[in-house]
Amino acid sequence: MMIVVNTEILTDVWQRLLTDPRTSWVLFEHGTCVVLTEPEGDLAEQATEILREFGPVHAGSPAGDFGVIDVKHADGWVVTGHHQDVLTYVAPDEPRGQDNLAVGMCGRSKRHRDGTELHIVHVEDRRGSADPA
User: In degrees, to the nearest 5, what angle opens at C-alpha 22 toward C-alphas 40 and 75?
Assistant: First the structure.
């Protein structure tokens, strides 16, 4: 059984984790965040295209790979995949175990759901919010 994480909690977690004032990002329903390093046009559309390609899991391919990051600014973990700008948050109460395999499999499953359902819950548009140097 997968636990549903509150959108406000997810948004707060990603705002704490992505502190660069120039970093725009888009959050999907199950906790996957697409960081837009070169934001242009419609951010939701740009993030959806990235996640449509790099979200779904294909066993035996790089799409099945993952890494686990123990984050300092939030409880839980961030699970990486085969695209460096696609990250999935896993809360402490979600995986069936606390080891990297359980956390990674949980995050990979959430990324797959987000990559196939493509339901956006938050867009953080930080274009133009940083002071020019």
Answer: 115
pLDDT in tens, 11-66: 999 999 998 988 999 999 999 999 999 999 999 999 999 999 999 998 778 888 89
Which pairing describes strands 86-90 and 120-124: parallel, antiparallel, or unpaired? unpaired
Residue with tokens 């294909």: 58
Length of the chain: 133
CB count, 10 Å around CB of 98?
Answer: 9
Q: What is the pTM of this model?
A: 0.89
Q: Find the Cα–Cα–Cα–Cα dihedral 16, 38, 125, 88, rounded to 10°.
A: -40
- Distance, in Å, from the CA atom of 91 to the CA atom of 10, rounded to the nearest integer, reads 9
